[in-house]
Amino acid sequence: MEASFRAGYFGPDAPAITSRSGRTTFEWLEGKFFLSQRFVNDHAAAPSGLAIIGPGDKPETLLQHYYDSRGVSRVYETSFDSRTWKVWRAAPGFWQRYAGRLAAGGNRIDGAWESSTDGKEWKHDFDLAYIKSHH
Question: Is the C-alpha dihedral spanning 120, 18, 6, 9 positive or negative?
Answer without folding.
Answer: positive
